[in-house]
């Protein structure tokens, strides 16, 4: 039996086929039921569609607030003291690992020896996502992921640089490529300040920093060799 045709009693059948006002009333009731059922089905379909669209939107634009993939406040400036590249020491000065942001903060002291100057320096700092602070120091937030095949890259105090344990890609304290199979320098996230707080936007990645050449390298290569 069709869902649009609710059962009727024998008496109703008689009336319907006998005609008259009573028949018209019953026919009207059946029509109303049919409309009701149709509207109910449309309402269920509408709710299902809305839920499906909401689910798809969540998949496309998940709410990552406070998680990796969003802007994270990682601490106050004074927790990341700057130093010269040759004196970087993990967790103490110059370079700091921030686990929730999967990031190394590199904080270069004002007056550090640099290989570029003037507009060349300004342009290169901008293309490598450095942020100049009011005290003249420079900040950059480096993604921990090796740009060769994705291993996590540790910072090595012994050779004052990042060296990937997987295939040996080697990066300077600011993430600039030094040697190994990596196709480019380390990727970096957008960094900004809010008062004295440091914010790393892990949803904004600069993955276009080329291997430096003599005319684009910012920081001198380290003099210490890695033991392995
Ligand atoms: S994954 Fe780092 S060198 Fe290959």
Mean pLDDT: 86
List the bound ligands.
FE2/S2 (inorganic) cluster
Flag low-confidence runs.
Answer: none
CA gyration radius, whole angstroms: 33 Å
Number of helical stretches of at least 4 residues? 3
Q: Structural class per helix/strand content?
A: alpha+beta
What is this entry, summarized?
By secondary structure, the chain is an alpha+beta fold. The protein is built from 3 helices and 12 strands; from the N terminus they run ααββββαββββββββ.
How would you portray this structure in words?
The longest helix has 40 residues. The protein has three helices and twelve strands, in the order H-H-E-E-E-E-H-E-E-E-E-E-E-E-E. Helices cover 26% and strands 24% of the residues. The strands form two sheets. Strands 1, 2, 3, 4, 5, 6, 11 and 12 form an eight-stranded mixed sheet that branches. It is α+β, with helices and mostly antiparallel strands. FE2/S2 (inorganic) cluster binds next to loops.
Secondary structure elements and their pairing?
Elements: H1 10-18, H2 21-60, E1 71-76, E2 89-90, E3 94-98, E4 103-108, H3 118-127, E5 131-132, E6 138-143, E7 155-156, E8 161-163, E9 170-171, E10 177-179, E11 188-194, E12 197-206
Parallel strand pairs: 2-3
Antiparallel strand pairs: 1-12, 3-4, 4-6, 5-6, 6-11, 7-8, 8-9, 9-10, 11-12
Helix pairs in contact: 1-2
The structure holds FE2/S2 (inorganic) cluster (FES).
